Amino acid sequence: MRYGYFDDPAREYVIERPDTPLPWFNYLGSEGYFGLISNTAGGYSFYKDARLRRITRYRYNNVPFDFGGRYIYVRDNDSQEFWSPSWQPVRTPVDDYTCRHGMGYTIIGSSRAGLRTETRYFVPPGETMEIWDVTVTNQRDTAADVSLFGSVEFALWDAQDDMTNFQRNFNTGEVEVEGSTIYHKTEYRERRDHFAYFACSADTAGFDTQREAFLGAYRGWDSPRAVAEGRATNSVAHGWSPVGVHQVDAVLAAGETRRIVFLLGYAENPRDAKFDPPGSTTINKRRVRPVIDRYLNGGAVDEAFAETGRRWDELLGLFHVDTPDHDTNRMVNIWNAYQNMVTFNLSRSASFFESGVGRGLGFRDSTQDLLGFVHMAPERARERVLDLAATQLSDGGAYHQYQPLTKRGNDAVGSNFNDDPLWLVLAVVAYVRETGDFGILDEMVVYENTPGTERPLLDHLERSLNFTLDRLGPHQLPLIGRADWNDCLNLNCFSEESGESFQTTTSQDGKVAESVMIAGLFCAAAAEMVDLAAQLDRTDLTEKYGGERAAMLARIESPAGWDGEWFIRAYDHFGNKIGSADCEEGKIFIESQGWSIIGGAGLDNGKAERALASVAEHLATDHGIVVNQPAYTSYHLELGEISTYPPGYKENASIFCHSNPWIMVAETLVGNGDRAFDYYKRICPAAREDIGEVHRAEPYIYAQTIAGKDAPTHGEAKNSWLTGTAAWNYVAITQAILGIRPAFNGLDIRPVLPKAWDGYTASRKLRGVTFDITVKRAGTGNSVALVVDGTPVDGSVAPMPEDGRDQVTIVATVS
Ligand code: BGC
Ligand code: NOJ
């Protein structure tokens, strides 16, 4: 069942009923000011850091869920009835409800009693504010007497403290009200130099800033007393819970539309100019007022909205495909690219499932996210790579996370997730392929943020690879450390205390447990290093890492890594196999199949095909490929968190969507475009739109997991939005299946398509040059003949033009 539809020309997903199975979210903002917004206007806003600069309050895990938001109330003063045009929080039935989630904006509209209200929410480029652009239209043939209320509930900045420290927080709240602007200034009197504001373009009939005065004691946001009575109380908050509410009264003639603009913003003042007059406790508004005034005028709002659209035109215009499959087109051209940018901006910090108070930026997460956005924001990718590398330890290891505000490694989580450094190699080489910026390799970057330790970035990559080579176990396979990509395969933890963190408790010395997945990842990273080194004429590096890779591949293919029908996953602390037919549960795992093959194992001896056949037989379901089978049914001290999840959830045999594209890529490496694309479609959100009642999460973006076949809710998606799934599916479809990849010297075209496709067209901008690509199928194989600007070329790479042209035409015939 569907809850809406894709409007591709508008680049929108249009939700047609408010009671979606879960709140379906979008994001506002892409620079410093960010917000989450659900299809019923739920969500919250923050400046840069979802924990430390929370602007509005949200109630996670609330009942009913998705509570706290950008709520508008309409009161029909003739009938004295009121409702929310976004349905929540009042939940009175509304007609013609639509929510249009677009690129960085959301429009929610509905009608009731002949009054149509529509609100467009977005963040103007370059500003630290959001706009709620509201129109109310009287569709009756008589005049309508209406009161409209716009409301926010302010968070007291530190979201963690805001949820816990009530003995203080109920005393600190402060606001100022001037004309139609409410300023929230809790703690501004002391050490904060920032404040929030909520402004309204209309002359207001009243306001409220004390929550209880607006709602009434023992009443909720679903029935504020001030709205029910049609009269805001002009309350001024002292302590308790500051809110911002504006009441606008209007008598609308038949057919008349009234536009009201609300601004919710964040502003900072220099420390020595905080107060006006100096010495008072009144906010100095001289800097912020011109900004507010500019946007209270509709023309500036429309111009800013158009500018947001132009920016997305530019970003999404960099890569466009036209394939025989609609779902592929809308994901690649619109939603998957969009999700890549949002995920890059926010990492894993703030979603319906990530409370914004948790983690910093993950080392492996950010390096993988880069693969999905590097073509859209190469300068930001460069900065991110250098920041990450500067947190690297001198032995090549990596802090598992770093804090974006301080750019320092997070000591509480520490290091020794032994896959981490290898992803840096993949990210840097992807960046250089995209940009041709070999100069980045010479950038002097410190280790562990320590001045005096500067070494060229290339040295960081070598140490990343050496980190693996310096830590080999009894089978000469890489030691796993606290975990590899699978954060929950904790082979050195042995925790018996409930509540202990599996990732930070390490009870074994870590000298035995090994990971075949890291072995495969090492081979992939070493291959990237070899390619890069060849460009730099560094034969010492080509030889060294070429040799180490060959040796590692041999181990993966030997009985140490090959179980007979598939690749073994790991060895535990006792040297026992994990992911082997010999095991009772967890006989086969997805990660070592994907990464062994991507690393190059089994490609010329049938093992890759055999392993992929085993994936199809044991792990693939109609809803995607599960992590492992059989699922673990009880807790295993020696396996860690993976065995804590009930079968079918998360790392214990769910469809962990991030890992599925590795199998898609592996399938293309053995030439099986049909199976690669089939797997792509099984988890493709757009292709799951029709089973919305099963999938339940947003059909326009990927979720982290889909419940596996062992779960009673098989097919249900969870943890949507911020996941490495976005980048990897983008890589799988664009680079492995459609076969368009940036190469050091041009654009490489090596499609591995489904047999039924007769081809596709695409346009891809690389380093300022637009490549127009036509792929035609002339036979059922995967060999490619390339004609570039009318001339046949050898191999699969269309070279960068040397004569300054910015347009290249490629015709690739696949047979
Ligand atoms: C999650 C992982 C996450 C880890 C962090 C696990 O429960 O499944 O995705 O990385 O916790 O502690
Ligand atoms: C989510 C984490 O952010 C990521 O780092 C990890 O690889 C996956 N979960 C799998 O455990």
What does this molecule look like?
- The structure is a single chain.
- With 815 residues, the protein is of the alpha+beta class.
- 27% of the residues lie in helices and 26% in strands.
- The chain is built from 19 helices and 43 strands.
- β4 and β5 (45-47) form a beta hairpin.
- It starts with a strand and ends with a strand.
- The model has no long low-confidence stretch (mean pLDDT 97).
- 1-deoxynojirimycin (NOJ) is lined by residues 348, 362, 364-365, 485-488, 651.
> Into which percent range does the helicity of residues fall?
25-40%
- Quaternary organisation: single chain
Q: What's the rounded overall pLDDT mean? A: 97
Number of helices: 19
Kindly, what is the distance between the CA atoms of the first and last residues, rounded to a whole number of angstroms?
39 Å
**Sheet with the most strands: spatial strand order:** 1-2-9-10-11-12-19-16-15-14
Small ligands present: beta-D-glucopyranose, 1-deoxynojirimycin
Q: In total, how many beta strands? A: 43
